[in-house]
Design a protein that fits this description.
The chain is mainly alpha-helical. The protein has a single domain, classed as Winged helix-like DNA-binding domain superfamily/Winged helix DNA-binding domain (Arc Repressor Mutant, subunit A). Helix content is 39%, strand content 4%. The chain has four helices and two strands. A two-stranded parallel ribbon has the order 1-2. It is globular.
C-alpha cells in the first residue's frame, strides 16, 4: 500500500495496542514526537493519518479514541466502533457518541 512515512509510523503504533485496550490520538502524537526527537506533534495530524487506514481490522484503529471520550471518525461507522470495543471488553463508560451536528 502506498502511503507516507508519517502514516506508517502512526499505523505501527496502532498495531501495538493490545486487544481490549485503547489509546488516544494525543498519546500516539506524543509517541511519534518522542521517536522523531520533537517537543510535540499534532493529535489532529494523527487523526488524519488514522482516517487514511483502508484496512480496518488489520490495523485496529477502532482502539484509537479522543482524549475527552468522544467516539468519532471510524470508516466502518461509530456504532461498529462501539460494538468492536464492547466485544473486546473495553470499559466504555467514559466514551460517548456525539449528537449529530454538534461539536460534542
Amino acid at each position: 500500500m502506498k502511503t507516507t512515512e508519517f502514516r506508517k509510523a502512526v499505523w505501527e503504533i496502532i498495531l501495538t495496542i493490545p486487544f481490549g485496550k485503547t489509546i488516544t490520538y494525543g498519546e500516539i502524537a506524543e509517541k511519534i514526537a518522542k521517536q522523531k526527537g520533537l517537543s510535540r506533534m499534532s493529535a489532529q495530524a494523527v487523526g488524519s493519518a488514522v482516517s487514511h487506514n483502508s484496512i480496518l481490522l488489520i490495523i485496529p484503529y477502532h482502539r484509537v479514541v479522543s482524549t475527552n471520550g468522544r467516539l468519532t471518525g471510524y470508516a466502518g461507522g461509530i456504532d461498529k466502533k462501539m460494538r468492536l470495543l464492547t466485544m473486546e471488553k473495553v470499559n466504555i463508560t467514559n466514551f460517548f457518541i456525539p449528537k449529530k451536528d454538534t461539536a460534542l
